[in-house]
Amino acid sequence: MSRANHTVVSEFVFLGLSNSWYIQLFLFVFSSIFYVASMLGNSLIILTVTFDPHLHSPMYFLLANLSFIDLGVSSVTSPKMIYDLFRKRKVISFSGCITQMFFIHLIGGVEVVLLISMAFDRYVAICKPLHYLTIMGPKMCTVFLVAAWTIGFIHSMAQMAFIINLPFCGPNVLDSFYCDLPRFIKLACTDTDRLEFMVIANSGFISLGSFCILFISYIFILVTVQKLSTGGSSKALSTLSAHITVVILFFTPLLFIYTWPHPTSQLDKFLAIFDAVLTPFLNPVIYTFRNKEMKVAMKRLCLQIGNFRKIS
Predict the structure, then answer these.
(1) For residue 47, which of 271, 238, 261, 308 has the smallest C-alpha distance?
(2) Which one, out of 54, 66, 113, 259, has a CA that is 20 to 30 A from the CA of 168?
(3) b/e per residue 54-63 (b: at least 16 CB within 10 A)
(4) pTM score, whole prediction
(5) Distance between CA 288 and CA 247 in Å, rounded?
(6) Cβ count near 119 (within 10 Å)
(7) pLDDT tens-digit series, residues 115-154
């Protein structure tokens, strides 16, 4: 039977982050600043990698794609959250809620695969340097990118297929500022134990499994780095520390939200803000300030833009 025959809910109401005007003002300023900064920072990385021939390498190709995904991470939930902060009634349509969840899990799945790809890239560069250009050629980079979007799409569609026909007859209040599966499923007018287990088995397993793979791979790479010369190991450690930091920032909220047995509303909200607002901003900051080549390339790009403006 169709969902329309069982569902009387056409929209969902968010409780938001806080009822305090001062906290809302702080969150508005905080979120707005970091949203704009993350959009500008990630856009700058994409432009720098695209137009600077010195950065046309697999590592920076993957980094530019990660920045593109971070633009999506920032845009899926942050603009509506900022818009809703001072609204008394924070609502989202049923289709809007489904769409938001679809893109959250699509982008999340793509980012997981990209982070694994970047770890593989560093493994080849450090452990098999003589074969790096052969293994990490344009074909391999394309395979990684296609695999990332394919896996992200399948991951998201697999979950949407289970929830799209759920009946919703009320209540329609989500104690959050965005739509996501755990709270959305609980509002369905049916037994959702199996669906909740499916979410843990799908998103939770992917998050935990990917984190373990990355953690083990970076330990292996770090052990290899210790055997290198001082000069080479210093540069490699600087690059690896940036990658490891980004992995921790990305997976920590996911592990709590999708695998924690007894989640708390306030903790989930804090982690969701961190994941939606801070992480996309911190990624370009970490990769920029820990990478001399990127800083030099950005200066060259800014000088070129400045010279172009003078000429025009």
Answers:
(1) 308
(2) 259
(3) ebebbbbbbb
(4) 0.87
(5) 16
(6) 24
(7) 999 999 988 988 888 889 899 999 999 999 999 999 999 9
